[in-house]
Amino acid sequence: MKGKGTVNNKNKIGRWRTLLIIVILCTVAVAGYVWYRNNTERRKTVESGDLYRLVPVRNGSITLKITSSGTVKPGVVYQVTPKLSSTVTNVFVKPGDVVTKGQLLVALDKQDALERLQEARDNLAIAEAKLQEAESQASLAPTQARLQVEQARVSLLNAEAKLAQLKEGAKSQDIDQAKTQVRQAQLSCENAESEYNRHKTLFEQGAITRQQFESTESKYLTSVESLKAAEQKLDLLLADPDPVELAAAEASVAQAGTNLRVAETNEASLNTRQQLLTAQAQVAQARNSVSSAERNVSLANVVSPIDGTVTEVSAQPGQMAGQSNALAVVTDLKHLNILANVDETDVHSVKTGQMADVMVESSPGKVFRGVVESVAEQGKVISGVVYFEVTVKVTDDSGALKSGMTADVDIIVDERSNVLVIPNTALESFRGLVMARVLDENKEPSFKRVELGISDGTFTEVISGLEAGEMVAIPSSGTGAATTVPARIREGERNPMTQFMPGGVMQRTIGSDRSGFSGGR
Q1: Is pTM beyond 0.70 here?
Q2: Can you give the pLDDT at residue 460?
């Protein structure tokens, strides 16, 4: 019984082994069939050229951009400080208020400023009165000085005539001549008096100037003195000489001569011009003081220096404010700056005045247009890479851009229109030469050398090597078409193919397991 059971077990094991072998053989057969069918289909696909899609070289537009990220900052931030020290009386704004340039923000106590203004105005009134007096003196002094000289000269003539008469005695012809002179002097005096009275009336009526009136008055007074002199001369001729009188006459001549010299000296040394200039300078200084005081009164009203938004208010009524105290902060939230960090390899292409597109996550799909305002001269190291700060100025009336936001910035370095363009996926580089992929008559990849211009990461400008309408080959998606590299181009590991990168070539070995090439930064 024991031997029979052992035989049955052996038979069962043999059957299981046979069944397992059959299953393995069937699996291998199915796998082989599947491989054979896939390989056949793939060979058909390669032969039919379906691994590649042909696209024409066409005319289009290319925009070369440098992409960076940055932070939104307000373009202008003003710390509003008072220009004079005083006490805050009223605060008219709060954070978040939109204000315009010149709008009143804070009022300061202006009592002291008003008092200083009144004092300055009083000083100006005094200075103007002194100036008016100086001007009057400047106009009258020359006439008065000339009149004094003429009077002194007449007095000298009279004294000399009297002395001569006393010494020589009277002569009939001299007496007749003196009488004639008296009559002539009387006529001149009467005419001068008539002219004087007429001009006096005209002056009182405002028909003539003071200078004209004073000139007539001077002539009249001179004629009166001349008449007196003539009469005195005649009296001397008619009188008998007296020793005492003779001595007195000599003394009168000496004194008259001295008076004339003094009058002439005074006329020559008039200083009214300098006095007038001094008075004018004092008036100008007083007017400046009034303007300064008026400005201080106006400075008691602290106004906004720009159109913007009040972002901070620190002023409080009763607070003592000075030029070192910021009472409020006004920020221009419409004209913003994007502070973008541009890699040192790209910054040489960035210039002021270039346009830029700005995007933020809070406004998907919306592009804000800006312009490059400045490029930093000094770089900074971030995570081991040197970046240069580029300031992009943006105007946003919608309020979508907020200070502190992170923004993506595309700086437009170059734009070209109506140029030949091809997809970057149709380009490869080999031994430093950039080539475009085409299909030969066997529908296998072939390559043509091309000269390229700028690229936007998807399409690249073709300068030479291809014509409009020519077809280039790009890999069909999901086919792994780029695994086929013609043997006449591939030379093994010693001469690797390299992937095309717009703006340069990135060394990358292409093996049989590599997919197609795509451009881009």
Answers
A1: no
A2: 92
